[in-house]
Amino acid sequence: MAEPLDRVLPWALLLRVHAAVLPRLERALAAHALPLAWYDVLLELNSAPGRRLRMSELGSRVVLSRERVSRVVDELERAGLVRREPNPDDRRSLFAVLTEEGRGRLRAAAPAYLAGIEEHYTRHLDDEEIGVLSRALARVLEAEEPPRR
Questions:
Q1: Strand residues in 45-89 grouped as ranges (E)
Q2: Angle between the 66-78 and 36-47 helix axes, to the nearest 10 degrees?
Q3: Is 69 helix (H, G, I), strand (E, B) or coil?
């Protein structure tokens, strides 16, 4: 009789891989004076229409808590990489907007970030495994993550 499948193991391994790889990506970005949290926010803003998102939308897209997002945007604003703009349609909300300087810093750091992902993650997987992981994790996200607008 076959052993029952350990349904918690993939979760535990995902957390351990995350914990092992993140510090390495932080070090890769340190040469660009760009903390990983900053990179994450800049990346989301760069891919948004008009390179801007309402703060609430940004908070739902990044891997930071909502409180941490506000602090990171404060830091990015002080560094000149992001600016806040009032939302003309809703005076209670603000947009976080990627500045040209922010976009330049993101582009300069991207090769180090991508090389870090390759070195510490994807080089250990073949194309079939990458496809299986991508499809499986996308299915979980689709079921659990609120839909993006």
A1: 52-54, 82-86
A2: 90
A3: helix
